[in-house]
């Protein structure tokens, strides 16, 4: 699977164009984020928990095993426009506010089931969100970065997907058995 295929898959899974996808195809440009866009360690912990709720550890690694929270911060800082960075950072605050409004506690204090229910509600809302003047929905960004970060990480690519290191040999006819894992390369 190459980058373009992965971006198409993420767009199909989230129902929205991949935010920052054009930069991924052309290459990221490192720039220092504005002071108000800096992430701290609590943001990374929160993003890890959001990602782990989306891709939990089962008999295979979860998003926290792939350090997806840290990956999100790098992608937002290095690849997102200032406008998208603002949407993402405001989204962290909005997620916390929504958690307190719905459950009376911060997201990190929610049970696994309550986290899942809250994110499922946000996912439905994000799918209905028009990315017009308001830009993309923050949860769409979080979900896309979770999928991208996990499936391009070593644990995601080697322990969840089938993986053959490049350069590998070309085999145009590989037998498929229903239930087989998808290929990472």
What does this protein look like?
One of its GO terms (molecular function) is oxidoreductase activity. Its EC number is 1.-.-.-. Keywords: Oxidoreductase. The chain is mainly alpha-helical and 185 residues long. It has one domain. It has eight helices and no strands. It has helices at 3-14, 21-26, 41-54, 68-79, 82-103, 112-128, 138-151, 154-160. Helix 3 crosses helix 4, helix 3 packs across helix 7 and helix 4 packs across helix 7 (138-151). The protein is globular and about 50 Å long.
Secondary structure layout:
Elements: H1 3-14, H2 21-26, H3 41-54, H4 68-79, H5 82-103, H6 112-128, H7 138-151, H8 154-160
Helix pairs in contact: 1-7, 3-4, 3-7, 4-7, 5-7
Keywords: Oxidoreductase
Organism: Microbulbifer celer
GO molecular function, one term: oxidoreductase activity
């Amino acid at each position: 699977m190459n980058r373009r295929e992965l971006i198409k898959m993420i767009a199909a899974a989230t129902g929205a164009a991949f935010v920052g996808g054009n930069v991924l195809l052309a290459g990221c440009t490192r720039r220092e984020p504005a002071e108000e866009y800096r992430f701290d360690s609590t943001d990374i912990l929160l993003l890890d928990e959001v990602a782990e709720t989306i891709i939990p550890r089962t008999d295979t690694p979860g998003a926290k095993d792939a350090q997806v929270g840290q990956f999100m911060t790098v992608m937002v800082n290095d690849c997102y426009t200032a406008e998208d960075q603002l949407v993402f950072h405001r989204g962290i605050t909005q997620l916390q506010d929504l958690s307190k409004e719905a459950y009376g506690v911060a997201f990190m204090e929610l049970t696994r089931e309550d986290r899942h229910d809250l994110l499922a509600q946000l996912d439905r809302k994000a799918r209905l969100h028009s990315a017009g003047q308001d830009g993309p929905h923050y949860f769409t960004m979080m979900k896309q970065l979770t999928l991208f970060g996990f499936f391009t990480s070593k644990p995601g690519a080697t322990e969840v997907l089938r993986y053959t290191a490049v350069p590998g040999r070309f085999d145009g006819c590989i037998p498929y058995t229903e239930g087989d894992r998808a290929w990472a390369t």
